[in-house]
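Record pair follows.
FIRST:
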Amino acid sequence: MDGSSAPVRLDKWLWAARFAKTRALAADAVKGGRVHLNGQATKPSKEVRPGDELEITVGQVRRTVVVRATSERRGPAGEAQRLYEETPDSVEARERAALVRRLAAMAVPEHGGRPTKRDRRRFDRDRRR
């Protein structure tokens, strides 16, 4: 990766930084309002430069990253991570949300899924009484 400071299209940068699997998906995310550049909704063709701040929402996870370098080519994940730096507030919020999801999943009692034939017969027998 060149890791330059030349401006690059937003959808191309999202693809190179591995926030999207394809440029088309990156463009759809921008058009759908899931990516904000410096606090404002934007278009996929908007150019990003080092120092720009992006708010990226993927599923329930919202990340705030600062662009450190630009690249027009997609490379290995290690090099892609050098293109941006996630803000400390974003990391903390993401970890807090993950903890809440884990705790919520533990609070739900596991009932075993679909009842077996034996369970259904017991239920029917108890219901007739």
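SECOND:
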Amino acid sequence: MSDIVNGLGRTSAYGALGVVLLILGIVLVDLLTPGKLGRLIWADRNRNAAILLSSALLGTGGIVFTSIWTTYDDFGKGLLSTAAFGLLGLVMMAVAFLVVDLVTPGKLGGILVDPEPHPAVWVTASCNIAVSAIVSASIA
């Protein structure tokens, strides 16, 4: 029975950490794009903003999953490494966003929240997934 209770505690800790990292990802995307992300997606039904945020959440989730899957036997060390890799992934996705913004015409944040569908959102979303895959592969 103590194994179950111990497992529930560890799962709760990793789950809480994962939720915190996802929230940080939402905040980061909100900071990188103009307007309020919640309003853009839920009130204005902006597909561009939804795709961009979804890719960041999927990428962050992939990094957290990989980090937990390959975690250390030491619970504290595993939790810390998951937090570190998750934060690194968020930073790297933000840097990739800024680099794409620098090398493409226009202001990327504005393009990505435009109500009209834009192909740049798919490029940026793919960049998020690619960066998270690279971080995930480096964990294993």
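COMMENT: The chain has a mean pLDDT of 93.
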